[in-house]
Structures are given as structure tokens and as C-alpha cells.
Design a protein that fits this description.
With 143 residues, the protein is of the alpha/beta class. It has one domain: P-loop containing nucleotide triphosphate hydrolases (Rossmann fold). Helix content is 36%, strand content 22%. It has five helices and seven strands. A seven-stranded mixed sheet has the order 3-4-2-5-6-1-7, sandwiched between helices.
């Protein structure tokens, strides 16, 4: 699992539908790559509120903030932030509303088979597509 596959949601700013789409994508990628865990990357734990909390529920968000186990179906979901001290992630990553630094941090990690970004701006999306050769999730068949 050394080569990463990059996708993005082609919108200026994601919404709850995109969060749901991203979580479904994580489960599909876990199945495809035979992973038992997946990751949600956000700038900070505070970014788990709002849309993400509306989708996952307050109980699950509080568990993620406390670094406790949360499962999507039978797959372990873990949260990482820009300040997380990690060097490798053995599973796909959904990055929600990232900064350039968070995008670069995830790219530098090893053992990630696939990455999906829900951008917070078109400028961010353009950086992502240019730098990493990401494909629009809407334009591909999830390879």
C-alpha cells in the first residue's frame, strides 16, 4: 500500500450530503483495500462540530474527540488533526475542509491507499488537483 490514489469532491464548499458521501467512500475503500480502519482528517477537533456532528451524531463526535473507538458498520473510524503525531496510517483517509498544511501532512504519511478531500474552497481544490493529480469523485468510477 505505497501508492496513494487521490480524489476530491468537486464543490466550492462541502455540505452534509458530501460528508455522507465521504463516509460511504471510506467504507468502500476499506472493502477494496481490505482495511479494518479508516481515518477522518480535520484541522482540529473543533472542526468535528457542525456538519460532521450532524452526520455522525454528538455521541460519536465526543468519542472521536476523546480518542475512543467509533465504528462505521464494522470498520474503526479514527480522527487525526493537523497536530496529530502520526507517521503512517493503514487505511483510507477522508480530509474534511483542510488547510494546505493538513493536505501536505496527509500526503507525507505512508501506507494510505486512498485519499478523498472535501474542500473548503476552489483555491484549495485547485492546489490539491495540481499538486497531487487528484481526480473528481464525480467524474470517476472510484477506480
Amino acid at each position: 500500500m505505497t501508492e496513494k490514489n487521490y480524489w476530491y469532491i468537486n464543490k466550492d464548499y462541502g455540505d452534509e450530503t458530501d460528508i455522507n458521501k465521504g463516509l460511504d467512500w471510506l467504507l468502500e475503500m476499506c472493502k477494496k483495500y481490505n482495511c479494518q480502519k479508516c481515518f477522518l482528517a480535520v484541522y482540529s477537533n473543533q472542526n468535528l462540530g457542525g456538519m460532521i456532528q450532524n452526520v455522525l451524531g454528538i455521541k460519536n463526535v465526543n468519542r472521536l474527540k476523546a480518542n475512543k473507538e467509533v465504528f462505521l458498520k464494522d470498520i474503526l473510524l479514527k480522527v487525526i488533526t493537523e497536530r496529530s503525531n502520526v507517521y503512517s496510517l493503514d487505511g483510507p483517509v477522508l480530509i474534511a475542509f483542510p488547510t494546505k498544511n493538513l493536505l501536505d501532512k496527509i500526503n507525507a504519511l505512508s501506507n494510505i491507499p486512498a485519499v478523498l478531500v472535501i474542500p473548503s474552497s476552489l483555491k484549495e481544490r485547485d492546489y490539491w488537483t495540481t499538486t497531487f493529480g487528484a481526480k473528481s469523485l464525480d467524474e470517476t468510477a472510484k477506480d
